[in-house]
Amino acid sequence: MAKAAIMGYGTVGSGVYEIIKNNAEKLKKNANGEPIETKYILDIRDFPDHKEKHLFTKDFNDILNDSEVSVVAEVMGGLHPAYEFTKSLLESGKSVVTSNKELVATYGTELLALAREKNVNYFFEASVGGGIPIIRPMHQCLTANNIIRIAGILNGTTNYILNQMIKSGQTFDAALKDAQAKGFAERNPAADIEGHDACRKIAILTSLASGLTVDYNDIETKGITDITLDDVNYAAQMDAVIKLIGFAEFQEDGKIYSIVSPMVVKNDSPLSGVDGVMNAIMVTGDCVGNVMFYGAGAGKLPTASAVVADVVDAVKHIERSKKIMWVEPKENIMANSDSKKFAYFIRTTDNAENIRGIFGKCEFVDNIVSGESAFVTEPMSQSDAEEKSGKLKDVVSMIKVLD
Ligand code: HSE
User: Fold this and answer.
1) Cβ < 6 Å from ligand 1: which residues?
2) Which of 173, 271, 288, 314 could form a disulfide with 71 if both were Cys (CB 3.0 to 4.6 A apart)?
3) Are 306 and 195 within one domain?
4) 208, part of any domain
5) Is residue 330 part of a domain?
6) Residue 318: its pLDDT value, please?
């Protein structure tokens, strides 16, 4: 019998508890016949009406000092005390599985190395893409490839908001409230709408793909707070949608270009039809070409599904580290922001003649706001686009176009 503990009984933690209980037979079969049972649930809150209230503890040491507990699901979120708890658990020889992208993106290098040293596992399938299998496929199934590019919709909350604006004409604030009520949003939804959550996820994927630590602070990040219904309607006019994209390109000189930004996504891209809370990650490998991973990017049971899969894998690999890791690079691996060219969708109050004079060749979009011109530039570097748009009378919006 494998004894597990759950740290954090929020949306995901309660889902982990339910799956371990309700799918016990299935989990046992998949864990080579080893039954898995929850022995503790750590939470600072009281749950007096819970059917198994005896499982709850407020004392982390109950879990740490119980030699019967071999695997712990850290689904409490945040950096502290999740970092200290995870470190102590790995040091004491327990495997830890997590949905905590902030922790993996910040301390992943150290925690993965510690797990390796202690011959246990630190798994984080649920940290990117909720229920979508993406970490194991990248680590195992795509291991023969040099990864060339990753472009993904990595945040369910912002995708839900943008989708509600497009499909129902709902305002930004109303759509955000909906996403919070459905349990998709972070405790502080600024992490979603300002792009930080997607940034941590693309940092994890680029670290995994390159084997080198990508510091999320080095990734230029812009959220969706400036996107208006007019932008969304212009995109529709261009047979496109606006999505928050986590993007990374692995360049031939070994550098990595990475950005999180709203982008105009043409309707012929498979990413354009990814609606609501769904996430999708398009990975391009030098052998496999494009592969796309699609599914529920947030929510109780989808995320818990990935956490519990990690619990099962940890039980199957007791005292056998799977050695997933990345290491600190010896030199700067981040590419200059001008090394990747994008076309830009620009709205301005300036006239067509001036626009052509500044940008040369560009494609005009029928305008839907009077007094405005809207157009798409040729692909150009970011500083070129900024310098040229600085010469326009007034820029209403400027959004990268995903190629
Ligand atoms: N707030 C996150 C999202 C939860 O909306 O995608 C899943 O990581």
Assistant:
1) 130, 155-157, 184-186, 192, 197, 297-298
2) 314
3) no
4) yes
5) no
6) 87
Residues 6 or more apart in contact with residue 369 via CB below 8 angstroms: 230, 347, 396
Strand-pair category, 256-266 with 240-250: antiparallel
Between the CA of 273 and the centroid of ligand 1 the distance, in Å, is 19
CA of 272 to the centre of ligand 1 (A): 19
Residues identified as active-site: 201
Q: Determine, yes or no, domain membership for 338.
A: no
Q: What is the pLDDT of residues 28-42, one digit of tens each?
A: 999 999 999 999 999
Give the distance (Å) from ligand 1 centre to CA of residue 156: 5
How confident is the model at residue 329, as a pLDDT? 97
Q: 157 and 273 share a domain? A: yes
Q: Is residue 245 part of a domain?
A: yes
Q: For residues 280 and 306, state if they share a domain.
A: no
Q: Residue 213, class by beta-carbon neighbours within 10 Å (0-12 exposed, 13-18 middle, 19+ buried)?
A: buried
DSSP letter string, 174-203: HHHHHHHHTT-S-SSTHHHHTSHHHHHHHH
